[in-house]
């Protein structure tokens, strides 16, 4: 890489984004090409590094994420040059990146890892908060500390974590579906989990052991504290464990679930009062959880007719890839979910531009038991594999699809239970032609396997089941299990011995 005095700096490889995908990609490139400078251009003041990586089984992995100053990364890899500035423009036909600080960088190969942002139910409403990075999590915590009641909208990972963790604040949880946690669970698993949610007390959460560098939120009088506009990296597992998620009330946990509904409208206090006084058709709030004595700053009208007053709303309704800026002037193919389409070599539709992590949409023909989900683990795997593909292309070598894309595997924690999801764990895309087998011991474990034509296609394991490795193997080798029938989940049979 050479700085062309005053003009653009030139280099073989550039990566945009200091999250897990970008940092992993830059690290791998730096290791593959120790004599080349690798440009890592990122808008965030800190980078995210994977630490304590543990391969739990063939495809399951666990690791911590640390926010680190970029100097640490440069120390570990002296050929990585971190440029802390947002990308302003990509001129892909010129192989050029322009940054906000007025500099230009010419690359031979580029990997875009700019992540995603929360997909909010409404944009620009100061009472609707999204949670993405350390900054927005802190803004949320600050607002919660003043709150008596909040409404959480959404039924995925963030909502599941929030409703379990929040203390001293009433939570109205509005979900589109019949059962909780639709992105990870079916109704059976949801049923298994519910008692944990309604229990008055929670197990003490493990203390956060990660270093955090944070940016303070900007406060506006009378309105929820807003997170600043800087694009930070996404949080990862256990993000809430260093935060004190407590409202103003003395009680421990109080969650009320509204199922099969969406937000119809959000009314500010003044508008709500006016509508109550002037509109004959507007509900008077009598369907509220309890007749409200207090006036709330904001009111949420649900499609089921109910209206809840609250201090603010959390929109935990998924993410949209950060592509806008890169689309300007560049004819990228974009997936239905708004991500940059990548082929099986993480290559976008434009020459020499790759993408990895939350920003991309996997557009290759996937293995029958793998699908994309915007997760930490996939961000790491994609970043690593994109670097391998960039290296192979640069050297004119061929490369096979990475093994991590053979089987979808995710290990996490919900409601203080260990949760492992494998393959088509919710029978995604299998149509009606599948069977479910269940084993459940209340308060202890929930095991579900998805079978098709005698083969195991997916599994949900909640609790300490110790089955993940065996089931991972059974899904990967697609053995015909018809002969075993219900014995597959018989707790009196040591299934591991059976198949090892
Ligand atoms: C609250 C929360 C909890 C989560 N919990 C889990 C979990 O338990 N398990 C799990 O697997 N996943 C979890 N995830 C998802 C996971 O964090 C993400 O999938 C993953 O971190 C995405 O990594 P990424 O590198 O693709 O993107 P990001 O981490 O978003 O990084 C994007 C990077 O790009 C930079 N950037 C953006 N735009 C520009 C620009 N124009 N110029 C320069 N740089 C730019 C940003 O500053 C940032 O450094 C969670 C997400 C959230 C929000
Ligand atoms: N432990 C884990 O593995 C965790 C993973 N994550 C990841 O972080 C990312 C962001 O998390 P989430 O925002 O929870 O996204 P998500 O994709 O997990 O869930 C989004 C939820 O919002 C619902 N939804 C979408 N639009 C809606 C609307 N207009 N009204 C009501 N509901 C709507 C969806 O049905 C879904 O339940 C995801 O990629 C998620 O997988 C987040 C937290 C924990």
Automatic annotation (TrEMBL):
Keyword Iron: no
Pfam families tied to this protein: Pyr_redox_2 (PF07992), Rubredoxin_C (PF18267)
Domain NADH-rubredoxin oxidoreductase C-terminal: start-end pairs: 412-478
Keyword Nucleus: no
Residue ranges of every copy of the FAD/NAD(P)-binding domain listed in the record: 13-194, 288-383
Gene Ontology MF, one: oxidoreductase activity
Highest taxon of the lineage: Eukaryota
Cofactors (names): FAD
Keywords, comma-separated and alphabetical: FAD, Flavoprotein, Oxidoreductase
InterPro entries per UniProt: FAD-bd_OxRdtase, FAD/NAD-bd_sf, FAD/NAD-binding_dom, FAD/NAD-linked_Rdtase_dimer_sf, NAD(P)-bd_dom_sf, Rubredoxin_C
Function summary: Probable FAD-dependent oxidoreductase; involved in the cellular oxidative stress response. Required for normal sarcomere structure and muscle fiber integrity.
Family: Belongs to the class-I pyridine nucleotide-disulfide oxidoreductase family. PYROXD1 subfamily.
Protein name, as recorded: Pyridine nucleotide-disulfide oxidoreductase domain-containing protein 1
């Amino acid at each position: 890489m050479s700085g062309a005095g005053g003009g653009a700096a030139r280099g073989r490889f550039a990566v945009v984004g200091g999250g897990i995908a970008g940092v992993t990609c830059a690290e791998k490139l730096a290791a593959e090409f120790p004599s080349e400078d690798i440009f890592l251009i990122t808008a965030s003041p800190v980078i995210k590094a994977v630490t304590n990586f543990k391969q739990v089984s063939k495809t399951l992995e666990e690791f911590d994420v640390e926010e680190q100053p970029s100097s640490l990364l440069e120390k570990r890899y002296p050929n990585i040059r971190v440029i802390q500035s947002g990308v302003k423009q990509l001129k892909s036909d010129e192989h050029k990146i322009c940054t906000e600080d007025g500099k230009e960088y010419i690359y031979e190969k580029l990997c875009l890892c700019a992540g995603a942002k929360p997909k909010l139910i409404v944009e620009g409403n100061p009472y609707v908060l999204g949670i993405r990075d350390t900054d927005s999590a802190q803004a949320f915590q600050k607002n919660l500390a003043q709150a008596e009641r909040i409404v959480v909208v959404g039924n995925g990972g963030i909502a599941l974590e929030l409703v379990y963790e929040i203390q001293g604040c009433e939570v109205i949880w509005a979900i589109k579906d019949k059962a909780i946690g639709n992105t990870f669970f079916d109704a059976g698993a949801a049923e298994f989990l519910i008692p944990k949610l309604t229990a008055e007390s929670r197990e003490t959460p493990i203390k956060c052991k990660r270093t955090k560098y944070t940016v303070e939120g900007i406060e506006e009088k009378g309105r929820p504290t807003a997170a600043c506009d800087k694009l930070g990296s996404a949080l990862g597992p256990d993000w809430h464990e260093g935060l004190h998620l407590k409202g103003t009330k003395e009680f421990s946990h109080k969650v009320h679930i509204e199922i099969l509904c969406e937000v119809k409208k959000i009314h500010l206090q003044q508008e709500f009062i006016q509508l109550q006084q002037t509109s004959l058709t507007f509900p008077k709030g009598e369907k509220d959880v309890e007749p409200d004595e207090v006036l709330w700053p904001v009111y949420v009208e649900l499609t089921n007719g109910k209206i809840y007053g609250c201090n603010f709303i959390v929109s935990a309704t998924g993410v949209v890839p950060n592509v806008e800026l890169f689309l300007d002037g560049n004819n990228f193919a974009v997936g239905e979910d708004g991500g940059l389409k990548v082929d099986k070599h993480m290559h976008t539709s434009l020459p020499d531009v790759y993408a990895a992590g939350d920003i991309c949409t996997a557009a290759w023909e996937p293995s029958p038991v793998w699908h994309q989900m915007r997760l930490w683990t996939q961000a790491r795997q994609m970043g690593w594999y994109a670097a391998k593909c960039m290296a192979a292309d640069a050297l004119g070598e061929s490369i096979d699809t990475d093994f991590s894309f053979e089987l979808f595997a995710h290990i996490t924690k919900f409601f203080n239970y260990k949760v492992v999801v494998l393959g088509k764990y919710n029978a995604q895309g299998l149509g009606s032609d599948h069977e479910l087998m269940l084993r459940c011991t209340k308060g202890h474990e929930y095991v579900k396997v998805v079978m098709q034509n005698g083969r195991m296609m997916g599994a949900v394991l909640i609790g300490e089941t110790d089955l993940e490795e065996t089931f991972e193997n059974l899904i990967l080798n697609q053995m015909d299990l018809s002969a075993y029938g219900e014995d597959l989940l018989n707790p009196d049979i040591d299934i591991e011995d059976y198949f090892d």
